[in-house]
C-alpha cells in the first residue's frame, strides 16, 4: 500500500483530531490536492480506505508521496485557509474556479472635493469602494447616471482651501461645457459638494428611494424660493433616478440586505448563482462555474462558492438563502432554506438564472468543440488534397496467421472520432490461405456493393492498411462498382507511414507531427486492433471446440452445456466429479473428468 511504502500510514496515525487543512504532495514535492477537515485524522484516513473509493480518488491516492497539515480553530477558518491556498497553488486535483476575471469597482476618493470613477484596482488608501460589479455594463450604467446627475470634477488637482481661494487654478474645458461645477475656483462650496457625494453613496448602496425623497424636498424648496431653473434640474434628476429604479428588478419592499444562492451540477461541472438583494431590489447578480476534479460533495462545493462570491463582492449580509445547507456554516450568518412566500420566489429566481447560465456554457462548449472539429477536418482535407471535408472516414485491415481464420475489419470515424456502432467484421469467404490483396478486394466489394444496394452513406475517404498492393486491389474493386471517381481512397503503409494515392508511383510523406497523419494512424491502428480482437476470439473458440470434441462420448450439445455452465475450458479441467455431474449428469461427468485427469497424470 502507498501509505506503508512512503511512511504515510504513520503520519496519518499521528494526525490530530482538530479542524484543519491538509496538503498532499507527489513524488516531485508538488502539491496535488488541498482539503479542509472538521477532524483531520478521520478525513485524511478515509483516503487510504479502499472500500467505496471512486476511480478518481484512487488515481489521486496512488500519486500521494507526502502530506502536511495546518491546524486551525474552527471549520470556518479551515474553509478560509483552504480557499486561499487553492487560489495560490492551483493543485491539479482540486476544483477549478473557471471565473478568474478582475471586476470593476466604483471608487469615491478620500480627498477634498472627492472624485467618482470606475477602477479595477483596489487600493487601500482610505477611499471608498463599491462593488466589485460582475457586470461591467451595470457599473458603467451607474457611473453614467452619477455623471448625468452630478457635475463632479474629474481632474487630479489638490483642491485644499488655500490653493482654491488664492487663485492658483483656473477653470478648464469641463467647466465650460457644463460637466463640472468648478470647485477649483470656489464656484461650489465643499459642504454642498459633499451633500452630492452622500447622495451618490446612497445610490451606489442601492438606497435610491432616500435620494429621491431628498431631491423632492429640495425641488419644493427651490420652487418656493422662485429658483425655477434649479427646481427644473432637480425634477429631471428625480425622473432619471426613477427611470433607473424602474429598470431594477424589484422583488419586495419588505426584504432588505439578503444573499441568495442556488446550485446546479452535472457530471463535470457545478454552477452557483448569486443574487444580492438591497432595499427590496436585485442589486447584483453573479454566477460561477466550478470544474470538479474528484467526487466532491455538493455541500462542500456550495460552501466554497458562497465563501468565494461573498469575498468577491465584499458582502456583509447576515441572511443567506440556500437550496440546501453547505457543509460549513459561517459564524454569525443566518442560513435558511425558504419553503414559501417571497423568499422562496427569490430562490426560484436565482435557480432560473443558474439554469440559463448552465445552458449557455454548454452551448459555448459545443461551439468550441464544433470549431475544433472543423479545424481538424480542414487540416486533413488540405494535407491530403481531398475534394471535400472528410466527415466520414472508413479504414480496412486484414487479419490472419499463416492463412488460418482469415478475417477483415472496417472501422468508421465520423468527424475525427470513432463511431463504434458503425464498425463491421468480415469472414473472408472466397480466398484460401494468406492473400491480403485478394482478401482486400473481396471485403471492399462486399462492403460497398451492400451500401449501394441499401442506399447507405458512402464515406468521404477510404483508408486501406497497406502499400501499393493493397491499394491496387481496393482500387480495382471501386472501379468495378463505379465508385473510383466518387470516393477518394489512399493506402497507409506501416513502416515509414507512407501515404499512397491511386496511380502514383512514389509515396507521399507527411511530417510526423502532422495532425492529419496522426489521425490516419489512429484510424489504421483502431482497424488493426478491432480485426486482431475478432481473429483472436475465433482462434480461441476453435481451440476450445477442438479440445472438447476430442473427448469420446461427448457430443456437440454437451460441449455447449459445459461451456455455458463453466464459461471456459480451464474451469472444466479444474471441476470436480460432483460439479461435472451437476452440469451434464454423472455418466458424462465421469468421462470428462477422467479425460482431463488422465491426460494430466
From TrEMBL:
<comment type="subunit">
    <text>Interacts with UvrB in an incision complex.</text>
</comment>
<dbReference type="GO" id="GO:0009380">
    <property type="term" value="C:excinuclease repair complex"/>
</dbReference>
<dbReference type="GO" id="GO:0009381">
    <property type="term" value="F:excinuclease ABC activity"/>
</dbReference>
<dbReference type="Pfam" id="PF08459">
    <property type="entry name" value="UvrC_RNaseH_dom"/>
</dbReference>
<dbReference type="Pfam" id="PF14520">
    <property type="entry name" value="HHH_5"/>
</dbReference>
<keyword id="KW-0963">Cytoplasm</keyword>
<dbReference type="InterPro" id="IPR010994">
    <property type="entry name" value="RuvA_2-like"/>
</dbReference>
<dbReference type="InterPro" id="IPR000305">
    <property type="entry name" value="GIY-YIG_endonuc"/>
</dbReference>
<dbReference type="Pfam" id="PF01541">
    <property type="entry name" value="GIY-YIG"/>
</dbReference>
<comment type="function">
    <text>The UvrABC repair system catalyzes the recognition and processing of DNA lesions. UvrC both incises the 5' and 3' sides of the lesion. The N-terminal half is responsible for the 3' incision and the C-terminal half is responsible for the 5' incision.</text>
</comment>
<dbReference type="InterPro" id="IPR035901">
    <property type="entry name" value="GIY-YIG_endonuc_sf"/>
</dbReference>
<comment type="similarity">
    <text>Belongs to the UvrC family.</text>
</comment>
<keyword id="KW-0267">Excision nuclease</keyword>
<dbReference type="GO" id="GO:0005737">
    <property type="term" value="C:cytoplasm"/>
</dbReference>
<keyword id="KW-0228">DNA excision</keyword>
<keyword id="KW-0742">SOS response</keyword>
<dbReference type="InterPro" id="IPR004791">
    <property type="entry name" value="UvrC"/>
</dbReference>
<dbReference type="InterPro" id="IPR001943">
    <property type="entry name" value="UVR_dom"/>
</dbReference>
<feature type="domain" description="UvrC family homology region profile">
    <location>
        <begin position="338"/>
        <end position="474"/>
    </location>
</feature>
<feature type="domain" description="GIY-YIG">
    <location>
        <begin position="17"/>
        <end position="95"/>
    </location>
</feature>
<dbReference type="InterPro" id="IPR050066">
    <property type="entry name" value="UvrABC_protein_C"/>
</dbReference>
<keyword id="KW-0234">DNA repair</keyword>
<dbReference type="InterPro" id="IPR038476">
    <property type="entry name" value="UvrC_RNase_H_dom_sf"/>
</dbReference>
<dbReference type="InterPro" id="IPR047296">
    <property type="entry name" value="GIY-YIG_UvrC_Cho"/>
</dbReference>
<keyword id="KW-0227">DNA damage</keyword>
<dbReference type="InterPro" id="IPR001162">
    <property type="entry name" value="UvrC_RNase_H_dom"/>
</dbReference>
<feature type="domain" description="UVR">
    <location>
        <begin position="209"/>
        <end position="244"/>
    </location>
</feature>
<protein>
    <recommendedName>
        <fullName>UvrABC system protein C</fullName>
    </recommendedName>
</protein>
<dbReference type="GO" id="GO:0009432">
    <property type="term" value="P:SOS response"/>
</dbReference>
<dbReference type="GO" id="GO:0003677">
    <property type="term" value="F:DNA binding"/>
</dbReference>
<dbReference type="InterPro" id="IPR036876">
    <property type="entry name" value="UVR_dom_sf"/>
</dbReference>
<dbReference type="GO" id="GO:0006289">
    <property type="term" value="P:nucleotide-excision repair"/>
</dbReference>
<dbReference type="Pfam" id="PF22920">
    <property type="entry name" value="UvrC_RNaseH"/>
</dbReference>
